[in-house]
Amino acid sequence: MGGADEGPSGRVRHDVQVVTVHGDRTTVRVGDVFLKIDAVQARADAEVEAMALAPVPTPEVLWHRPPVLALAAVPGAPLGRVGEPSTAPASAWRAAGAAIRTLHDAPLPPRLGVGRDELAARLAAECEWLTASSGLPSDVLAHHRRRAESVLRPWTPVFVHGDLHASHVFVDGGRVTGIIDWSEAAQGDALADLASLSLTHERHVDDLLAGYGAEVDRDLISGWWSYRCLTAIRWLAENGYGAPEELPEATWLLSS
């Protein structure tokens, strides 16, 4: 995506590409530079701090002059995308697991994550909205709410990315070349990261966990899949990603 080429005068031309636009922030790409425009300075500050602390490959910060954060592009290609088959090799999924284990074993960042009470309140609010507005069957919502409630238990906090979609992990062959979008990094539940990364990529879980190298409760990963889908649909719909019933998160709820 993107890059520089020759314009009619022979000068190098950089296309401006809009990567994401929503109510929280906008990201554009110019050549190999990403410009993140964030209305909340504290969120951008937290992202810069998290990347400095994380013991895994992250984008280079070129400059930060609020409200704009300039980041260098990372090499490689995304590990996958929600709702689409991943073409990354098994070695890439194992490398992603190893990188996430390195992150989770690192010293805790200073930022506190979301606690169980807030997670429970959000789940209740989103399920109420889904019941009234999504068109999804009530029995499907009830089933996944029960699964999602299983994650509302005590956990030992670790350094989590907090928004670890497969599209945020870049790989080249069997190595991780960069992990992007650290604005939600904080202390949190390790299984939330693993579940977010593997959402709709169930067939790669064995390789992911082999790289992670620790015993985990797979039922809780399934619970986090349900939680992530139930709590993401409204935000995605309201920010232009599609009608609720057409989103891959809704498709997953209906099929699982």
Describe the structure.
The chain is α+β, with helices and mostly antiparallel strands and 256 residues long. The protein has one domain: Aminoglycoside 3'-phosphotransferase, Chain: A, domain 2, CATH 3.90.1200. It contains 8 helices and 12 strands. The strands form 4 sheets. Strands 3-4-5-7-6 form a 5-stranded antiparallel beta sheet. It has a 3-stranded antiparallel beta sheet with strand order 8-10-11, covered by helices on one side. A hairpin with a 5-residue loop joins strand 1 and strand 2. Helix 2 packs across helix 6. The longest helix has 21 residues. The N terminus is likely disordered.
Write the SSE topology.
Blueprint: E1 4-6, E2 12-14, E3 16-21, E4 25-30, E5 33-38, H1 41-53, E6 61-65, E7 68-72, E8 77-78, H2 90-104, H3 116-133, H4 138-149, E9 158-160, E10 169-172, E11 175-179, E12 186-188, H5 190-198, H6 205-212, H7 218-238, H8 248-255
Antiparallel strand pairs: 1-2, 3-4, 4-5, 5-7, 6-7, 8-10, 9-12, 10-11
Helix pairs in contact: 2-6, 3-4, 3-7, 4-7, 5-7, 7-8
Helix content: 40-55%
Distance between the termini: 33 Å
Tally of helical runs: 8
List the secondary-structure elements in sequence, H or E.
EEEEEHEEEHHHEEEEHHHH
Query: How many independent structural domains?
Result: 1
- Which sheet architecture does the biggest sheet show? 5 strands, antiparallel
Q: What is the radius of gyration?
A: 19 Å
**Strand segment count:** 12
- Please name the fourth-level CATH homologous superfamily: Aminoglycoside phosphotransferase (APH), C-terminal lobe
What structural category arises from helix and sheet content? alpha+beta
Class in CATH?
Answer: Alpha Beta
CATH architectural arrangement: Alpha-Beta Complex
Strands of the widest sheet, in order across it, are 3-4-5-7-6
Domain Aminoglycoside phosphotransferase: 31-214
GO molecular function, one term: transferase activity
Keywords: Transferase
Protein name: Phosphotransferase family enzyme
